[in-house]
Amino acid sequence: MEHPENDPKYVGLNVNKGISRPPVINPYLKSARKKRGNYSPGEYIEQILKGNIIFLSQAVTLLESRKNEHQSIAREIIEKCLPFSGKSVRIGITGVPGAGKSTSIDAFGTYVIDQRHRKLAVLAIDPSSERSKGSILGDKTRMEELSRNPHAFIRPSPTAGSLGGVARKTRETIILCEAAGFDTVFVETVGVGQSETAVHSMVDFFLLIQISGAGDELQGIKRGIMEMADGIIVNKADGSNIEKANLAAAQYRNALQLFPPPASGWTPRVLTYSGYYQIGISQIWDMIDEYISFVKTNGYFDFRRNSQAKYWMYESINEQLKNHFYQSPKIKKELAIKESKVIHSEISSFQAARQMLEMYFKERD
Amino acid sequence: MEHPENDPKYVGLNVNKGISRPPVINPYLKSARKKRGNYSPGEYIEQILKGNIIFLSQAVTLLESRKNEHQSIAREIIEKCLPFSGKSVRIGITGVPGAGKSTSIDAFGTYVIDQRHRKLAVLAIDPSSERSKGSILGDKTRMEELSRNPHAFIRPSPTAGSLGGVARKTRETIILCEAAGFDTVFVETVGVGQSETAVHSMVDFFLLIQISGAGDELQGIKRGIMEMADGIIVNKADGSNIEKANLAAAQYRNALQLFPPPASGWTPRVLTYSGYYQIGISQIWDMIDEYISFVKTNGYFDFRRNSQAKYWMYESINEQLKNHFYQSPKIKKELAIKESKVIHSEISSFQAARQMLEMYFKERD
Questions:
Q1: Reduced to 3 states, what is the DSSP secondary structure of residue A133?
Q2: What is the CA radius of gyration of chain B?
Q3: Partner-chain residue, chosen from A220, A351, A361, that has the shortest CB–CB distance to B260
């Protein structure tokens, strides 16, 4: 039998047990938004540090903008917010399509806000996203409860671009959210496949949502993701599905033993839960708290954050070095010629590379 | 019971059935070597095209040299040899330590030379290699039979350097060997872990040697390598070990079914053999011949070679772009400062990257 969540009969029937609240000011609505550029970087910073999410949201929009003047303001805001950032717990959340990620994030978020008194920012990385800034209806219906919670800030993935670019913007958004007082950050992978590595490189805890019927899930592409997980949680452990979920959890536990132990010294755990019926949520948060306290004690928390900061500096340098080369029109033209020569064995790959670089550096001298 | 190959009782007792030959001129001996630099690039090319392995060997030494004048001669030789290259079958060979790789290569090499009338070059990629040019005793005893075979050219891995550098030299050595008439090239991975990808990117067929007692072999790091394999061969299928080897082969066959089908359209095969007793070697070569004929027919052979040539051009460009940046003394100094600032959250990773690149490009303008 299909899970009630996917059953059309149940659609619109809210069985969540979170406390319903009146809707608050939605920063995405045009009416709540001042025209961008009306404020100075100093005003943005002041308001962000006060926790004003309308200004926070506009600052994120500036950093996502492709206009140079917007980016330059955004850069100043980020640098000034940096000393006030870093104090949140950053949690990466991924899972196969159909694992119930949105329902889970809705439940997790509502739980941490209501029960653990956290302020939560939910960000996403989706390099394939073509969503325009206006159409956040998707996220509002995906996370119905959370989108009405005044202590939650939900921001859709930056619109389409290279994975590196999208990920960079998300990482910068984390800084702004933390400066605005959000002490818990979820970074969700929406794209399937590559964005997991990018998310993993900006979070403290990487949570993998799985489902039962797991035989196939253990295989193929998902193995690399399993190796990154600090915790695996099996969703839909409710009703007649509990046994299957427990079985899947046991399989994941076995599979995890085959991987080399992670550098953190932490043994990844496998838990079962139900996002839809909100069962087992507190245990997941206990696990995350335990992990954070464990790695803060053994020094791995800072080590990972420092490694990530260095990683993004070098990634960014390498990306820009390549962009500068490959985006030059002269290089582009010559590269096409060289590629054809290399394929036809007229010159070696290495000679072609050498000639391209000579041309590039001569140009600049 | 331990396999006889590893049993000290049997050491030195040659039970191989290959035909013994008188030793031929060994190009690695000082007495057989003219002083390098005595010949013009034209002389090298002429002699290499005639199949003179003393000149071939010296040319490889030139390309491995760090001296600019040697590299510039080597470059000219490679470019002139390029039109005469490409006609060999390039086979990558890897396997876990203890799988009997050296004995297997000795047996395979002797077989293809004696039974299939091939001329064989055996190269290796070992980024961790610290062996000096003189100490090839290792390779001579590792491949006892083959090192005495006049139709074999065995070249140790270039000495220590970055994986990219070592791999580049090996790939250029393939060009020279092919120009010298070698129609079969083995590229062996000696290092454990990363060099497999480099080898895979320069061969037509990737052969993975495994052994029985395979439960553990299926796990961990080796999975990525299994996915690259065009054929898996289980060694030590002899005597009381045959059943275990067959069982391991069945396990590998099952495991292979879990991977997505390779782009070549070829279904990777699993065979058993004994390198030490030379059982099942011809079946391995039948498989490789069948593969080559299969991919030459469906066009994948050329496609893979072209992709590899392009891959090495771009790899080489990207490597040199990075080298140019990171090896600049001014950049090095500033990078250390920036890294520390990034770790202490004084500037963001992206601001640091931007500032580094501004400095780099300003310098050059």
A1: coil
A2: 23
A3: A220
- Spatial contact of B70 and B62, defined as CB atoms under 8 Å apart: yes
Query: B199 with B92: CB under 8 angstroms?
Result: yes
Please say whether the beta carbons of A14 and A35 come within 8 A: no
CA gap A361, A208 in Å, rounded: 45
Which residues have C-beta within 8 Å of that of residue B6, sequence separation ≥ 6? none
Side chain identity, residue B200: H
Alpha helices in B215-267 (DSSP H): 222-228, 242-257
Element (H, E) at B325: helix B300-326
Q: What are phi and psi of B110, to 5 degrees?
A: -60, -40
Burial class (CB within 10 angstroms; exposed 0-12, middle 13-18, buried 19+) of A2:
exposed
Q: Which of A81, A345, A358, A361 to mutate to test binding with chain B, by most B CBs within 10 Å of its CB?
A: A345
Identify all chain B residues contacting A363, using CB atoms and an 8 Å cutoff.
none
Q: Residue B264 corresponds to which amino acid?
A: S
Measure in Å the smallest separation between the Cα of A20 and chain B Cα atoms: 39
B162/B157 Cα distance (integer angstroms): 12
Could you report the predicted ipTM of this complex, rounded to two decimals?
0.75
The C-alpha of A324 sits at a distance from chain B's nearest C-alpha, in angstroms, of 10
Nearest alpha carbon to residue A166 among A202, A118, A112, A217: A202
SS (H, E, C) B286-321: HHHHHHHHHHHHHCHHHHHHHHHHHHHHHHHHHHHH
CA-nearest residue of chain B to A227? B220
Q: How far apart are CA A170 and CA A158, in angstroms?
A: 7
- The DSSP secondary-structure symbol of A29 reads S
Does residue A23 contact residue A154 with C-beta atoms inside 8 Å?
Answer: no
Q: Are B155 and B60 in contact (CB under 8 A)?
A: yes
Q: What gap in Å lies between CA A62 and CA A198, rounded to an integer?
A: 22
In whole angstroms, give the CA distance from residue A159 to residue A166: 7
Contacts of B215 in chain A (CB under 8 A): none
Residues 6+ apart with CB under 8 A from B31: none
Which residues of A fall within a CB distance of 8 Å from B339? Answer: 310, 313
Of the candidates B86, B168, B353, the beta carbon closest to that of A313 is on B353
Q: A-chain residues within 8 Å CB-CB of B221?
A: 260
- Which residues are CB-neighbours of A29 under 8 A, at least 6 positions away? none
Closest CB from A175, A259, A313 relative to B352: A313
Which uninterrupted H or E stretch holds A232? Answer: strand A231-234
Digit-coded pLDDT (tens) for A237-283: 999 999 999 988 988 888 787 777 888 999 999 999 999 999 999 99
**First and final C-alpha spacing in chain B:** 70
CB A4 within 8 A of CB A274: no
Tens of pLDDT, residues B114-168: 999 999 999 988 766 544 443 344 555 678 889 889 999 999 877 656 777 788 8
In SS3 terms, A142-182 reads as HCHHHHCCCCEEECCCCCCCCHHHHHHHHHHHHHHHHHCCC
Token pair for residue B286?
């039948």
How far is B247 from B272, CA to CA, in rounded Å? 10
Structure confidence by residue, pLDDT tens digits, A53-110: 999 999 999 998 888 899 899 999 999 999 999 999 999 999 877 788 889 999 999 9
Handedness of CA A200, A203, A209, A210 (dihedral sign): positive
Contact A174, A120 (CB under 8 A): no
**Per-residue confidence band for B95, with pLDDT thresholds at 50, 70 and 90:** confident
Long-range pairs for A297-303 at CB < 8 Å and ≥24 separation?
A298/A264, A298/A265, A300/A263, A300/A264, A300/A265, A300/A266, A301/A204
Give CA–CA dist A3/A240, Å, rounded.
Answer: 10
